[in-house]
Amino acid sequence: MRIKNISVFTSFGTFLVLLIIVSFHVQTKAADGDDQNAGRWSRSDRVYIVYMGSAAVSSTSSDDLSSLKDDHAQLLSSVRTRKPNAVVYTYKHGFSGFAARLSNEEARSIAEKPGVVSVFPDPLLKLHTTHSWDFLKYQTALKIDSNLNSKTTDRVSSVTTTDGSDTIIGILDTGIWPESESFNDKDTGPVPSRWKGTCMKSHDFNSSNCNRKLIGARFYNTSESDGTTEIDSPRDTLGHGSHVAGTAAGTAIPGASYYGVAAGTAIGGSPGSRIAMYKVCSDGGCRGSDILAAFDDAIADGVDVLSLSLGSASWSAPELSNDPIAIGAFHAVEQGIAVVCSAGNGGPYPETVVNVAPWILTVGATTIDRDFESDVLLGGGKVIKGRGINFSKLEKLPVYPLVYALSAGTHDANELSARNCEVNSMEAEKIKGKIVLCDTGGDSSRNGQIDTVKSLGGVGVIFQVEHPGVAAGTYVALPATIISVKDGQEILSYINSTSQRTCIRHKEHSQGKPAGFSFPIPNFPRKENTNISNVVCLQPDIAAPGVNILAPWKGNDTSVALEGQDPPRFNILSGTSMACPHVSGIAATVKSQNPTWSPSAIRSAIITTASQTNNLGIPFTTEKNSTATPYDYGAGEVTTTGPLQPGLVYETETVDYLNYLCYYGYDLSKIKTISRTVPKEFTCPKDSNADYISNINYPSIAISNFNGKESKNVTRKVTNVAGDGETVFSATVDAPSGLTVKVIPEKLQFSKNNQKLSYQVVFSPTTSSPKEDMFGSVTWTNGKYRVRSPFVIDI
Ligand SMILES: *[C@@H]1O[C@H](CO)[C@@H](O)[C@H](O)[C@H]1NC(C)=O
Ligand SMILES: *[C@@H]1O[C@H](CO)[C@@H](O)[C@H](O)[C@H]1NC(C)=O
Ligand SMILES: *[C@@H]1O[C@H](CO)[C@@H](O)[C@H](O)[C@H]1NC(C)=O
Ligand SMILES: *[C@@H]1O[C@H](CO)[C@@H](O)[C@H](O)[C@H]1NC(C)=O
Ligand SMILES: *[C@@H]1O[C@H](CO)[C@@H](O)[C@H](O)[C@H]1NC(C)=O
Ligand SMILES: *[C@@H]1O[C@H](CO)[C@@H](O)[C@H](O)[C@H]1NC(C)=O
Ligand SMILES: *[C@@H]1O[C@H](CO)[C@@H](O)[C@H](O)[C@H]1NC(C)=O
Ligand SMILES: *[C@@H]1O[C@H](CO)[C@@H](O)[C@H](O)[C@H]1NC(C)=O
């Protein structure tokens, strides 16, 4: 487990990634001693989040707690008295604290007050793009392969004994398009009576937009300071939230497609679950203060599962104490709500996983067995593989002359602008009737580039990019494809040769073909910051389909409409944003079958039943075709039937999380402020090191500082949920060379249901100088169930 962060993760790399931008406004001198402004917030004030843990909202009252309650009330009222209107939010259901406009000095002084855990500037989880929003819009407006989804459904959910109809999935995202048929309530029973949420009203949204499927919709707005144009409404003006909600719990819609592409049935992971949308993101990003307000509301509203396809960028990951997702999730989990988050799109680079706090179920992405190949055919039969979704109006593989944008540059054009196919940088007569090879870089938006080429009379575009990735782009203006820079070199030499003619051939791989494209998008775990320097927990926990996913879209998006056609009702997107709601849906189904299970039992069921092979039964490989490791996919790809009946579960208890907080550096008094359920006898271990954290009762195992000299051992405790009372589970170990792994005892004899038994795993080196991290697994079986825990040994 490590420190995690926040933002909307759609698409990999250059695509939609919201990250936290903590803007360091320079405090102007005017703020100090600004007498005429006394009692008001001044321009130099900014929003700070004052986090005061949950002790003050706890229902159990002791002297300690009531004094904390007083601290909270006093602090809040002193801020209110000094600064009317400064308080933006008061958090009071799931945890306690507030968000308010404060000066630097005020924030600093509040941080010293009793009962305050942390005070931090309101972070903005933002779209992580060097490209314009226009690019983002187009890219995230990507599409979803309906066939993909139906295949996903086949693969991931071939057996549903329950459709999760009594569970409520809360989604923090960009809002929802309630008219989408995926949110109809035709076959849905009455709204669960425990639901206490609401359907907020605005000029384009009212209670009649909610129904038995979409049972709640709230919006938050601290957006005025962001200069964004977001409307005050739960309505989704971006599309992302509708897409995610449809993937988590959309009703089955046969015949869904994006203009015929990816046709099939669009269906959510838990089609019977109810949806509650909490709109915390706008095109400017997602405010931490809004996210915390949504957690606070969702806890009071009565959701069962929370799904967050957002986070910070890995490079701006905040400390645990300043991380609104980690904080909100802690309190949600403490109150029995499972929290599922996307791991971010930072891969394939190491240590880019975010949302890694051990109480969160962190989801990476895999591809599905479908790909949108758009190849470039050169003269002489040479085929260069590319990726792009086909909306070609070119008939029958026509052949066109090819030109490199650089050599079509105007005489006064900047070389870089020409290579990037920017406006006013290329000569129309050199482009007209040709397929143009463009570089991508800087702020250029691919759809902007395509528009530019089209305006000059070009007929197609080939983009050469450093990391082509696996997600196909939707380009509606001209046929286009993405290839690697390496392949681009080949095209360049080809252009230098005589014939110079080419075409782009699109093919959508269909179900019949053995594709085997299901490999993970690598998401390496982030090793901890300076204070926490070891791998103490394996992240991501699990992977789920996240590439080219078809799901509902906002209904009025002309920017992704084919010329002359109505806006699409479904769209295809890629990213861990899309993977996360698959798992949220499955978590809801597990909860529905096992209503008493804790979030950690649900997570355990999902992790221990994951698959390590793709749809062809072949072990997962990475994008580079090397064998994938748990660093790439956690425990593996989620399955849908396995988690419903896992046999054994690892229950991670509050004390485990408190130990993590000790390890993180909090003292006992802070921990007592944070958590409402600190056992009386709890103290932080004196030697709270990484080895200690390896013993958190987590369904996966991570060992750090393994040096080849000494053994390490960890303890785990499993709960028998096999349902047959008496049963015997035996351990099998898959260990890499260089390592001996011993499980003690090798058999666990359960005499009744829900009995808990412990075991130890001893990891001993067989070589004195292990060279690289090692991976393996411990699996318990009783003939009927297979309960697998992956392990990683960090050296
Ligand atoms: C909700 O909005 C719709 C469309 O604007 C309108 O027809 C309907 O009367 C409104 N319902 C309520 C309860 O305000
Ligand atoms: C959103 O902001 C507007 C203008 O600042 C305000 O009138 C409205 O009440 C706010 N809505 C919510 C839900 O906070
Ligand atoms: C193509 O030809 C140009 C000029 O003739 C030369 O500068 C360039 O290096 C050549 N490119 C390749 C990839 O051969
Ligand atoms: C693109 O897709 C359309 C519709 O599926 C198909 O008719 C057309 O042949 C395809 N174009 C190419 C060049 O593959
Ligand atoms: C789509 O609907 C939203 C919300 O009502 C509105 O703000 C936006 O302007 C609409 N866009 C178009 C292209 O009509
Ligand atoms: C990936 O590796 C396997 C075995 O190492 C090989 O058979 C296969 O052809 C490779 N695939 C690609 C696309 O390179
Ligand atoms: C982290 O380390 C820095 C010094 O490297 C120290 O100042 C800080 O207090 C430490 N934080 C925690 C949470 O231990
Ligand atoms: C594992 O570690 C525990 C605690 O350090 C110790 O009590 C136990 O004997 C160890 N077990 C083995 C097999 O080394």
Question: What do these coordinates show?
Answer:
It is found in: Secreted. GO terms for molecular function: serine-type endopeptidase activity. Residues 164-636 form the Peptidase S8/S53 domain. One of its GO terms (biological process) is proteolysis. Residues 695-793 form the Subtilisin-like protease fibronectin type-III domain. With 795 residues, the chain is of the alpha/beta class. It is 21% helix and 24% strand. A 7-stranded parallel beta sheet has the order 8-11-7-14-15-16-24, with helices on both faces. Strands 18-17-23-19-20-21-22 form a 7-stranded mixed beta sheet, sandwiched between helices. It has a 5-stranded mixed beta sheet with strand order 28-35-34-30-32. The model is unreliable at 1-38, 126-162 and 509-535 (pLDDT under 50). Helix 5 packs parallel to helix 12 (576-593), helix 6 (288-301) runs parallel beside helix 7 (324-334) and helix 12 (576-593) crosses helix 13. It folds into 4 domains: 12-123, 2-Layer Sandwich (Alpha-Beta Plaits), CATH 3.30.70.80; 126-369 and 516-646, Rossmann fold (3-Layer(aba) Sandwich); 371-508, Glucose Oxidase, domain 1 (3-Layer(bba) Sandwich), CATH 3.50.30; 649-793, Immunoglobulin-like. It has 17 helices and 35 strands. It is globular. It binds 2-acetamido-2-deoxy-beta-D-glucopyranose (NAG) (8 copies).
In short:
The protein folds into 4 domains: 12-123, Alpha-Beta Plaits, CATH 3.30.70; 126-369 and 516-646, Peptidase S8/S53 domain (Rossmann fold), CATH 3.40.50.200; 371-508, Glucose Oxidase, domain 1 (3-Layer(bba) Sandwich); 649-793, Immunoglobulin-like, CATH 2.60.40.2310. The chain is built from 17 helices and 35 strands. The protein has a 7-stranded parallel β-sheet, sandwiched between helices.
